Amino acid sequence: MTPETETRQVAVLAERRRGATPWQDWVWQAVEVLEQAPDLPAWSVLRQDERATLYFAGLAEVALHPTDTDNYRHNLAAGAARVWVVLRPLQTQAMPEVALHCVTVDAGEAHNYADVGNDLMEALPLPPGLAAWVADFCERHHKERQFRKRRRDAKS
């Protein structure tokens, strides 16, 4: 990490609910990112009924890097800014069957996780305080980069 990198912890809520098909017993989904964490251990049950269980999945660190401000600015300008949560399936039958892997506000980074195919990723609304922090970070660190067209080698 560079000295200008900033981090902030967020809390993630995840839900485990019955699958809609006979081939999938349960489905995991990140459902909310909170700016303030509850005073609970990770994977504590918050609410449970016969169809679903809501968990406090734990804390994750959101990192902002000065070289990625273009991606953050595009996210904020998109109208409904997003935060992406990645849950990673575990090779176990024990609860929880997933781990909180990461949280990011960088659509490019989220795209990399989507390409892997094994991870469970949700795009959730960016909480207002987090959005203000990202906007302030961009204001302080963004530098316009001029497009430079590469020249082909003469041998090609």
Please give a structural write-up.
The protein has 156 residues and is α+β, with helices and mostly antiparallel strands. The protein has one domain (6-141). Helices cover 21% and strands 39% of the residues. The chain has a 4-stranded antiparallel β-sheet, with no helix packed on it. A hairpin with an 8-residue loop joins strand 5 and strand 6. Helix 1 (69-77) crosses helix 3 (128-141). The longest helix is centred in the C-terminal third of the chain and has 14 residues, at 128-141. The protein is globular, with a radius of gyration of 19 Å.
Write the topology of this structure.
Elements: E1 6-18, E2 26-34, E3 44-48, E4 52-64, H1 69-77, E5 82-89, E6 98-104, H2 107-116, E7 120-125, H3 128-141
Antiparallel strand pairs: 1-2, 1-4, 3-4, 5-6, 5-7
Helix pairs in contact: 1-3
Protein traits:
156 residues, alpha+beta, 7 strands, globular
Q: What does the main sheet amount to?
A: 4 strands, antiparallel
Structural class: alpha+beta
Strand order of the largest sheet: 2-1-4-3
| N-end to C-end Cα span | 38 Å
When the domains are counted, the total is 1
Q: What is Rg?
A: 19 Å
**What is the 3D form?**
globular
SSE order, one letter for each helix or strand = EEEEHEEHEH
Tell how many strands the DSSP assignment holds. 7
> How much helix, percentage-wise, in residues?
10-25%
- The percentage of residues in β strands lies in 35-45%
Mean pLDDT: 90
Instruction: Determine the number of helices (DSSP H or I, runs of at least 4 residues).
Output: 3
Low-confidence stretches: none
